[in-house]
Amino acid sequence: MKEQPEARSIVFVVDDDASVREAIGSLLRSVGLQVEVFGTAAEFLKNKSPDVTACLILDIRLPGVSGLDFQVELAAANIHIPIIFITGHGDIPMTVRAMKAGAVEFLTKPFRDQDLLDAVQIALERDRTRRAQDKTVHELRHHYEALTSRERQVISLVTAGLMNKQIAAELGVSEITVKVHRGSVMKKMGARSLADLVRMADALGIKRARR
């Protein structure tokens, strides 16, 4: 049963050296991981990959676009897949650029099998966490969209730290009305406390009213 989570994960390998692709593919499959290999960045982009936890092992030097430039292209296309760079010609500026852009690891060939396996596990866990966070935000946004315009005003004022009396004065309604709206907001958003509601507002990027 231990391999079930990995059955829903894919490791993509992009390297123009067929022997390297196959060696990495064999290594990853030997520990129960699903692997897909490509010779170029273009081949990878043409691939219709399933929407599952994944990471990308990417060679720095590729025909056409370089690995570093491809990293930038993926980010620009809103493709947030964790990247592990491998290279036979690494240098410090290259490593710094890759890591600053969010790479999980930068391995220089020849690297130890265990170093690559460790990096893959970190990358998959990072993607798993991101996907869970994205799902949570999506659900919160769905709840937020169910709020009335008045309730959206209330959530903005409540999470800014205003008391019911202050909110009532701000909106020109009674304090009782504010309490009703506030209770409705908490229920619709599924918030258990004010701190919970504040975290939700932050996750959604709701602009808080100025005090």
From TrEMBL:
Keyword Transcription regulation in record: yes
Gene: nodW
A GO molecular function held by the record: DNA binding
Residue list for modification 4-aspartylphosphate: 59
PANTHER family: DNA-BINDING TRANSCRIPTIONAL ACTIVATOR DEVR_DOSR (PTHR44688)
Name recorded for this polypeptide: Nodulation protein W
Gene Ontology biological-process annotations: phosphorelay signal transduction system; regulation of DNA-templated transcription
Organism of derivation: Candidatus Sulfuritelmatomonas gaucii
Keyword NAD annotated: no
HTH luxR-type domain segment(s): 140-205
Record-linked InterPro entries: CheY-like_superfamily, Sig_transdc_resp-reg_C-effctor, Sig_transdc_resp-reg_receiver, Tscrpt_reg_LuxR_C, WH-like_DNA-bd_sf
Stretches assigned to the Response regulatory domain: 10-124
Highest rank taxon of the organism: Bacteria
Any single Pfam family the record assigns to this protein: Response_reg
Taxonomic placement: Bacteria, Pseudomonadati, Acidobacteriota, Terriglobia, Terriglobales
Keywords on record: DNA-binding, Phosphoprotein, Transcription, Transcription regulation, Two-component regulatory system
PROSITE patterns: HTH_LUXR_1 (PS00622), HTH_LUXR_2 (PS50043), RESPONSE_REGULATORY (PS50110)
